[in-house]
Amino acid sequence: MRSGIHVLLPLLTIFILRTAAHAQIVLSKVFGDSMVLQRGINIPVWGNSTPGALVVAKLGNIKATARADKEGKWQVKFPIFREGGPYVLEIAESEKPASGIKLKGILVGDVWLASGQSNMEWEVQQAKDANKEIANAGFPQIRFLVVEHSKQVKPQTDISAGKWKVCDSENVKTFSAAAYYFARKIHRDQNVPVGIIQSTWGGTPIEAWTSREMLLTSPITKARTLSNDTLMPDREDFVQDSLNLIRFWHIVYNPQNNTDKIVTVPEYDDAGWKTIEMPDVIKEPGVDYHEGMVWLRKKISLPPSFAGKDVTINMGHPEMNYSLYFNGHEICKNVWNASPAHSYTIPASVTRSGENAIAVRIAMLWGGGGLNAADDIYITDGCSTISLSGKWAFKKDLETALPKMLNYQYYPTVLFNTMIHPVIPYGIRGFIWYQGESNAAAAYHYRKLFPMLIADWRKRWRQGNLPFLFVQLANYMKTKPLPSESEWAELREAQTLALSQPNTGMACAIDIGEANDIHPKNKQEVGRRLALVANKMVYKQECIATGPTFQAFRKDGSCIRVSFANTGLGLSTNGSKKITGFAIAGKDKQFYWAAAMMAPGKGNEVIVCSDKVVEPVAVRYAWADNPECNLVNSEGLPAVPFRTDEWKGITQK
């Protein structure tokens, strides 16, 4: 008898726990106060409750009901709403109305899912004109839900965390800059509330955002996806990687071993440190790569004229995360380049005549780190300027080493499982996507992988061919003196080829990148160009939404004529006398910079020639990591990079 009780007790406990779990109605975390729901469709709302319970939902004065299944899952669908609000959403079990849920401040408008890697994740406070933009960000009809980072080996039924927030000067700081500027223009142009579901993770490849089922359909991704089967949610290294991620960023953001109190003071002895030339990226002879916290120090002598004054220090273009100290006082703590300018005021109380000490704590991550050479580094009192260029003392390993990251967020399908799947089938107007940097080394495969993701998401949302708008990679890295092959150019080509998919649109950013920063700051223009595409393609406005696009070419003697579409009132070079960006080649496949001119009497043709190529067969435009190119249409939108040849590229393996 006792053994029977021992068997029944655990079963009874499980039954009670399961019953308790469904005793109260629960909404998916993607719903909340201040959310935006999609106009013009049957609006889905879902959650959990007591199995078999009748769920009654009310949005405004409109009711909808659903019966929970045996697992307690339910979904109601409201009829079509026009834009408007605010509404109250009330949901309860019919037999327990007092224990229901009430959400307030809900608007109906257009909802866009914004996804991708760091250039979509880049925050308003990190981008151009941050202070001005934040101060003027009073748009109560723009709302954001930022899905918290999470990775799992199996599809999840709910996001790990996230909360809808109204766009104001406090909340906007951490919104995606590209998505915010897109939403702002759509809101102004269409006069509708706009909701953004932001699901982003920096540095991640497209495979992480695609479902297992879709990845298994391609030989490109099948083997790597199947290798995920060795991962288990409770596997020690998978769990440890999440803990290491927390420790990793804690160290980056918080000085270890009291270094901020010891290393920063003028009296600290750095005689044993190595020296390095600044401004530059930190590199050591014989060391390919270092990741961790690094300290830089420099002693400078200030003349008596600087005494008793607030002075300004300009740090050039420090990369990623850093803190600046002057004579032991913290002048700034910069997180993810949150400051649009790296110029700071040093109070008069901190400076002194004679020797002063500057210390910089800087994170070296992913091969970057240093006081880069985009701008000069100096200190000034407004009258005199003292350069800070030259030798700096340099020391690593003063702090706790960063934990080794296995970075499972890079693995196939793990982000789809936790940051996309739980959002489906929230009613949306379409997708905006900014990603590709992490796939550049395998750009040829992106020709297949990108359309796979587009088809995957559309199929799962079951809203037809939802608009899919994306940003082409901006110009980046050093400008090369001669025409050359480029992984980034091939990735841009793969993105352009995705326009063959129905209801897709691309914003070209080939003219707004930065040579020394993979995260260009001008996200205003990125958002504006995405919104232009949406206005034309989705909202059916008459406008020129994209720059000139390659249409055709033909040989013309020893030259090649190239014709373009989307030229508006005609091609131009934004005031420059010379067209740049074209290269030409003969059958030997050797490219040379070409002379280019507008075809007489034609507003949409360019004639391309080179005295080094007598029999030209191919033309390329803006085919480089960071091309010098200036062809635009009458709206000032840049011509999309292209090539006329189909010669094997460097990523085609």
From TrEMBL:
Keyword Hydrolase (UniProt): yes
Pfam families reported for this sequence: SASA
Regions crossing the membrane: none
Keyword Protease part of the UniProt annotation: no
Residue ranges occupied by any Sialate O-acetylesterase domain in the UniProt entry: 109-227, 427-531
Domain of life: Bacteria
Keyword terms: Hydrolase
GO molecular function: sialate O-acetylesterase activity
GO biological process, one term: carbohydrate metabolic process
Descriptive protein name: Sialate O-acetylesterase domain-containing protein
InterPro entries membership: Galactose-bd-like_sf, SASA, SGNH_hydro_sf, SIAE
